[in-house]
Amino acid sequence: MEEFRLIATAASGIEALVGRELRDLGYHTQVENSRVRFNGTIKDILRTNLWLRTADRIKIIVGEFDAYTFDELFEKTLALPWDQLLPMDAEFPVEGKSRNSKLHSVPDVQSIVKKAIVNQLADTYHRNGHLPETGALFPLEVAINKDHVLLTLDTTGSSLFKRGYRVEKGGAPLKENMAAALVMLAKWYPDNPFVDPVCGSGTIPIEAALLARNIAPGFNRSFACEKWDWVPKGLSQELRDEADSQADYDTELDISGYDIDGSMIDIAKLNAREAGLLHDIHFKQLAVKDFTTDKINGVIIANPPYGERLSDRDSVRILYRQMGQVYAKLPSWSKYILTSDLEFEDYFGQKATKRRKLYNGALRTDYFQYWGKRIRPARQN
Predict the structure, then answer these.
(1) Are 243 and 266 in contact (CB under 8 A)?
(2) CA–CA separation, 208 vs 229, rounded Å?
(3) Which residues pair with residue 355 across a beta bridge?
């Protein structure tokens, strides 16, 4: 099989996690801002789309070069082997972005790249400059940064955070791949209790269960490249069957999701059922201030309201204070709270063991980490 140069794109702040996932799958990686480079065949493309929990997309690098004029952009794009990737009837929209570059007009950049590809394909397929674009979708992107052009073909389609299980959502849902990143950063082990005290539509507990069960996050969705005619028939199903055989449905899990809003608990249950994990997660309507437990060595992961609007800030900071008071009684538990409120520690009442800057969409947030002091469980006679 032909080997491609590939990139896995990622939200700012979790590129290292994507790199770790790829290395765990056996790939050599190069971590950069918002992406990780690696090499692989079409089998690897399907495999990484299926298995990566924290990435956004898997893209084939068609070409990269420096360009300072539109003529240079056209000629260097024209010289790339588009006909080896795009069939005669391919639908190939071209998205674009440009930063700190001489070629700063994105519409012009997109138009010139599109024209160069059309010219090359029309010449190859003897179409006199016209292509039908009635076939499978091949999403292309031209990204220019400091005059360096990167031309990529998206193999994923809808972003990898769209797992396919979220049939309902709340007001400000956390993307599934960000939820997975929060769980992975917490280094939670499935034999320990797991609690999300403000679970909303259930995304964090569901991602924890998917991870604990070793269920491929992309198992219940499709990818753009599965419709391409040069992808071997049956390869995708072979990889899905292999993934299914690796899932662990036997380990006992102790995962709970609570929310003060009963309607959100109903939504969380719907989503967990869609993911096939309803029996693995205990959902219950419960306020943060009412949470108690005699379990030890657990992990709490919370994505509470941030109080971005001034009218919400006071009530949100009351919630932070309640969290601090309730969780202070759980010294063996590790607590991980994501918020954009940089004064969170003042209201929680304790300095974090560690803080990590993450971006929830375009919003800068901090992941406040409080590491518990593990208690050795009493021996059973």
Answers:
(1) no
(2) 36
(3) 368
The domain locations on the chain are 4-154, 176-244+253-370
In angstroms, rounded to a whole number, what is the distance separating the alpha carbons of residues 188 and 212? 9
Q: Does residue 93 have a pLDDT over 90?
A: yes
Task: Tell if the pTM clears 0.85, that is, is over it.
Answer: yes
CA separation, residue 153 to residues 88, 98, 105, 232 (Å)? 16, 17, 21, 18
How far, in Å, CA of 191 to CA of 216, rounded? 20
Q: Residue 130: how many CB atoms within 10 A of its CB?
A: 8
CATH (one of 3.40.980.10, 3.30.2130.30, 3.40.50.1110, 3.40.50.300) for 4-154:
3.30.2130.30
* Mean pLDDT, range 252-277, rounded to an integer: 97
**Residue 104 identity (one-letter amino acid):** H
Domain over 176-244+253-370 is classified CATH 3.40.50.150? yes
Cα R_g (the chain), whole angstroms: 24
Strand order in the sheet with 281-285: 281-285, 255-259, 194-196, 299-302, 334-339, 363-370, 354-360
Both tokens of residue 341? 């409120």
What per-residue string of b and e applies to 319-354 under the rule 16 or more CB within 10 Å gives b?
bbebbbebbeebeebbbbbbbebeebbebbeeebee
- The Cα 41–Cα 50 span in angstroms is 14
| Residue in 193, 161, 165 with CA at minimum distance from that of residue 178 | 161
**In the predicted model, what is the mean pLDDT of the chain?**
95
Note the pLDDT of residue 371: 98
Structure tokens of 344? 């969170």
- Pairing between β-strand 57-66 and β-strand 4-9 as defined by DSSP bridges: antiparallel
Query: Tokens at residue 288, please?
Result: 């943060």
Q: Is the pLDDT of residue 20 over 90?
A: yes
Q: Which of 102-111, 338-347, 371-380 shows the lowest per-residue confidence on average (mean pLDDT)?
A: 371-380
